[in-house]
Amino acid sequence: MMELEEKVLSPGFGLWTIFLTPGLHLQPSTPRVRDMKNAVIGNNKQKANLIVLGAVPRLLYLLQQETSSTELRTECAVVLGSLAMGTENNVKSLLDCHIIPALLQGLLSPDLKFIEACLRCLRTIFTSPVTPEELLYTGPDHQTILFNHGAVQNIAHLLVSTSYKSLLLGRAPRAVRHGDSILLRGLQQFTHHDYCSNLSSDSGRWSVDSALVRMQALKCFSVLAFENPQVSMTLVNVLVDGELLPQIFVKMLQRDKPIEMQLTSAKCLTYMCRAGAIRTDDNCIVLKTLPCLVRMCSKERLLEERVEGAETLAYLIETDVELQRIASITDHLIAMLADYFKYPSSVSAITDIKRLDHDLKHAHELRQAAFKLYASLGANDEDIRKKIIETENMMDRIVNGLSESSIKVRLAAVRCLHSLSRSVQQLRTSFQDHAVWKPLMKVLQNAPDEILVVASSTLCNLLLEFSPSKEPILESGAVELLCSLTQSENLALRVNGIWALMNMAFQAEQKIKSDILRGLSTEQLFQLLSDSDVNVLMKTLGLLRNLLSTRPHIDHIMSTHGKQIMQAVTLILEGEHNIEVKEQTLCILANIADGTTAKELIMTNDDILQKIKYYMSHSNAKLQLAAMFCISNLVWNEEEGSQERQDKLRDMGIVDILHKLSQSSDPNLCDKAKTALQQYLA
Questions:
Q1: What share of the chain is helix, strand, coil (3-state, %, to 5)?
Q2: In a 3-state reduction of DSSP, which class is residue 359?
Q3: Residue 129 C-beta-side C-alpha neighbours within 13 Å
Q4: Residue 21 phi/psi, 5° resolution?
Q5: Which one is predicted more confidently, 152 or 91?
Q6: One-letter-per-residue 3-state SS of 148-195
């Protein structure tokens, strides 16, 4: 007789081996399923063995049988959830057994414990990378169960418990971002049931359950609205007892409401505003949401509330100049934020160990939040930047922040520095006084991409011609670093790398220009000129234009790289590029035409000359003007060989075009054409 594989399982599995064997029908019981649950918890090997024995179909069968007791069905859902928490292969096995419809059907049960077990199993499955998130909404039966048979309403009752919050959120926000109309339809139903109607109650008193319902519904709305225009536009038009949902959120901002409610309501309105569903100049934002968030930054609030208030406010005002201005003059916010850097305090270390532990826990979060809000405040206005930098020890705090152990604090500090680096005055004063380029270069040596992107953007500003930091940055080996960034797979890093090199090349010495060309290599330069992103292409053309400035530099570079540069120019002028790209390319040709010996590379290239002629008669005035600059530099009569160049261009019909352009209604074209014609008359 063949021995059963009881030896590989924990005690109690022998009975289940018999129970799962085809042809044997042992009546299951709740204790037996519970034994199975206890045996597989935390043991992936046991879970795999159970799946091999065929437990999943049997458990799903019991879970769906109306004759099974609710307790048994709940235990089956718990065991399935435990199996899902094993390996990715376990999840694949569950999906192959069509577990999703069975669990969704379970959501129609009146028993909340069974619903909870099904939800926990669903959450575990859908947080696995092997599960397609659209699977929840693609099946027609799934849609019917969720939105027509009342599963959404049943789930809503779980909102009264804070322990169920994560069950309700799960992967839903990500799925909504795919624009799933089915989920939006469900969301509209979601907002019209009793738990949402409770939000509109204006009574001064409510039950504990009612307050919990309000808070969990608010949190759910805030998560759904975050960076989600489609959902935000749905929420902004929802009527609850004749009142729009945003108006209800505004009422919850009142000072007599619980702080958590004020904060979460402010987050809902903030996210809806940033998603475009509410105007930035709407009174509910300017007069209600913004002041509420500033209040949350005050010393009177708990540290965690100050963190959440500052981060939400930073997000609200991040892209709006007027909101930044209003926030900067509200309740001395800029000075108030300086207090965020004073934790843990020296007093707490001496008098209260618990307070010290609490302060230490939130100190990183406070600094991160302050840096974020300072970055948003100083994004556009020069006066606000000045106030921020004049705040107590601000530059020292930023420099220290760049070397913090916390990646989040470092990232926020770099963002703050980037925001302030947009100030010409501060680049010349505070940035130089504190030598911020040193820690910035250190950050760029070894950091995650998210920090590298912001740090390299900041470096672009520090390399501007008027920045005193430019020279020491060049001496610290920045060329090699920036050239390496141009080879990154990260688009933002490629843009920033070439942008910084473009700034570096502006009015630079010939040695620096040669170092840049050597560091990039001809192959990499062509790679950048053929990049699919127009920003990379434009910045690369800008770099070439800056490299090819001043005659000695033009002649030197074209003597060593002329053939490759002319080939690149030809490819771009022949390609399907926008007006700005073609204009920049023609300006490069105009610079080459200004060289002493370099201009011969144009005059001996009939293909390029024909292209210049073509663009002189183009319908776009910008391209015509750029082509005219090329011609003016080629025919200038004070330079050697001008007569031969003029004759060749006349034979091509250039003079006839100049006469036509001298009659143009565009004053710039007219003046440039007349100037070129005068060279022929001199």
A1: 70, 0, 25
A2: helix
A3: 2
A4: -75, 130
A5: 91
A6: HCCHHHHHHHHHHCHHHHHHHHCCHHHHHCCCCHHHHHHHHHHCCCHH
Q: Residues 459, 414: contact at Cβ < 8 Å?
A: no
Find the mean pLDDT for residues 440-456: 92
Q: CB within 8 A of 173, min separation 6: which ones?
A: 223, 224, 226, 228
Q: Which helix (H) or strand (E) holds 240?
A: strand 239-240
Return the HEC string of 290-320.
HHHHHHCCCCCCCHHHHHHHHHHHHHHHCCC
- Going by C-alpha positions, the residue among 341, 342, 337, 339 that lies closest to residue 294 is 337
> Exposed (0-12), middle (13-18) or buried (19+): which is 48, by Cβ within 10 Å?
middle
User: How many other CB atoms are found less than 10 A from the CB of residue 252?
Assistant: 21
Q: Helices then strands (H, E): number in the chain?
A: 46, 2
How far is it, in rounded angstroms, from Cα 468 to Cα 381?
A: 22
Q: What is the DSSP letter of 619?
A: S
Closest CA to 574 of 564, 585, 565: 585
Q: Which two tokens stand for residue 540?
A: 């690369």
Dihedrals φ, ψ of 243, to 5°? -120, 135
Residue 521 Cα distances to 463, 486, 487, angstroms: 21, 11, 11
The H-or-E segment that residue 243 falls in is strand 243-244
Q: Which of 94, 105, 88 is nearest to 59 (CA)?
A: 94
Which contacts qualify for 181-189: CB closer than 8 Å, 24 or more apart? 182/137, 182/143, 182/147, 183/137, 184/230, 184/231, 184/234, 185/147, 186/146, 186/147, 186/152, 187/224, 187/231, 187/234, 187/235, 188/234, 188/238, 189/147, 189/152
Half-sphere exposure of 626 (CA within 13 A, CB side): 25
Q: Decide if pLDDT at 19 tops 70.
A: no
344 prior amide bond cis, ω within 30 = yes
Q: Between β-strands 239-240 and 243-244, what pairing exists: parallel, antiparallel or unpaired?
A: antiparallel
How far from 279 is each of 196, 221, 285, CA to CA, in Å?
24, 19, 8
Q: Which amino acid belongs to residue 115?
A: I
Residue 243's DSSP bridge partners are 240
- Return d(Cα 656, Cα 658) in angstroms, integer: 5
Going from the C-alpha of 469 to that of each of 26, 257, 462, 479, 480, the distances in angstroms are 81, 50, 6, 14, 17
Residue 2: left if φ>0, alpha if ψ -120 to 50, beta else—which one? beta
User: Per DSSP, which regions of 632-674 are E strands?
Assistant: none
In the block, residue with structure tokens 């080459």: 592
Token pair for 434 = 């504190």
> What amino acid is encoded at 54 in this protein?
G
- CA gyration radius, the chain: 34
How far does CA 409 lie from the centroid of its chain?
17
Distance (Å, whole) CA 131 – CA 175: 12
pLDDT (average), residues 304-325: 97
Q: Could you read off the pLDDT of 129-187 as tens digits, one per residue?
A: 888 867 766 665 665 555 555 555 555 445 334 344 344 444 444 444 443 444 455 45
Environment class of 347 (CB within 10 Å of its CB; exposed 0-12, middle 13-18, buried 19+): exposed
Residue 637 has pLDDT above 90, yes or no: no
Residue 375, class by beta-carbon neighbours within 10 Å (0-12 exposed, 13-18 middle, 19+ buried)?
A: buried
